[in-house]
Task: structure prediction
Amino acid sequence: MSKTPPDTARILIVDDEPSIRRFLRVALEAERHVVIEAATAREGIERAALDSPAAIVLDLGLPDRDGIEVLRAVREWSQVPVLVLSVRSDEAGKVAALDAGAQDYVTKPFGIREFLARLRAVLRDRATPGAPAVIEAEGLRIDLAAHRVSLDGAEVKLTKREFDLLRLLAAQPGRLVTQGAILRTLWGPSHTDDSQYLRVYVRQLRAKLGDDAADPRWIFTEPGLGYRFRDV
Result:
């Protein structure tokens, strides 16, 4: 059995143009990368949270939200490298993207060799690797790829939403994930003020994990701010 090449990375492309996504997919897969696609801001934020990409290629002209908003949303909980790919060539636009947390900026139309070189540089300089495939802490085992959770060897049955919530928190152990970031990622931008809705799901998740909010083992509440998974 052949081994996965060590330089293979999971790349998320967030662009509403199918032709651009196809073009980039061919080029990236030729470089042995794994490609994830998103056509909207909402889908891009969700995929960034749930698929743990090694880097994001982000278009700014998305149909539902500006790409800068996507970048700011992702930066609330992740330092995944972001390479902006946009038709906007003005200096102010580039500065805004870089100030919002992008690592580099490529203007459309672009040469694929330059793009791949810039992506390689972004991957070399990335601050943090992608989340591990399995997270374990005090008898709790979360298999991110298989969408399975077990506690002391017994399977814990979670709904898709409960699992996505646990995955979002556990993929960033020890780091605060704000209520707004969770709601925006899992339910969309129209639900960013539904903190009570989120509390219901956290309560359900804790009940299934046997986690006590007053003396938590895994999910810690930061009152008025959000939630933090224990540092593993």
